[in-house]
Amino acid sequence: MHGMQEVRGSIPRSSTTYCGIKKSRCRNAAAFFMSFLHFTRSLAPRQASFNCISGKVFCDDNPLYKNSNETDFMEHFDDIYRRACERHGGEAALNALIASPLATDTELTAIPDDRWLSSFTMSLFQSGFVHKVIRNKWPEFERAFFGFDPEKMLLLDERHFERLNNDTTIVRHAKKIATLPANARMVLELGREHGGFGAFVAQWPKDDIIGLWLTIKQHGQLLGGNIGPYALRRLGVDTFAFTGDVTAYLRHHEVVSAGLGSKTGMQQAQAAFNEWRRQSGFSLTEISKTIAFSID
Fold first, then answer.
1. Of 34, 72, 129, 291, which one has the greatest count of Cβ atoms within 10 A?
2. Domain count, the chain
């Protein structure tokens, strides 16, 4: 699927003008800074500030930049959507590509704990492996792991691990197999106060999906990166994901200034997706896919 692949080719990127200075986004930071110095001499009595980290200029008397934040300089979602439509056969074709049925809070709450553990485990085994192979073998995984009943997974011992690591009907990966007790404990403990893991997920703030990712990573084993988001999305949770294309877009357009594996980078991405959702009314999942389809 296009949206899951690394980006190839050029990524459209508009030039930006801040308080009359056109920043071409070239890498010559010194030239831009000198332009800024010449520009500020003509500002009086206006006041301007230069953010040395983001490379952005803010004018205090300009309503467009007063109380500005990072999302003020993002590409509007209408432009992203228009470009994706142009590249994939029009609006109807794009909407079919990004269509993502989501579960309601009631539906999420009704999903039993074993299905959450199964989904996390599938995403873990698919990481770094051919997804189709894991999907085709999944009925055997369900058999070998007792339907991913969390209570039973807590009882796995060395004898069970030896059996599983010699079971030719599944993908034998000792390190991943060994995560089952810890991840079963995570599902049970996080869900305990809410009546189940599904209820725990359903009550999580919709504008802080990265907080849910980080909580799952912190309490589980080997559930970082896109493993958590893919597992959640599979069961109908609305979440974006840092696919190769989405990551390339966020970095190229300077939506994030920190690594997407860092808390700062994740928070910057969350703020951007929240703003795009406000602009479009689309789900986080649809926005994520649209971004992926908007680039070559």
1. 291
2. 2
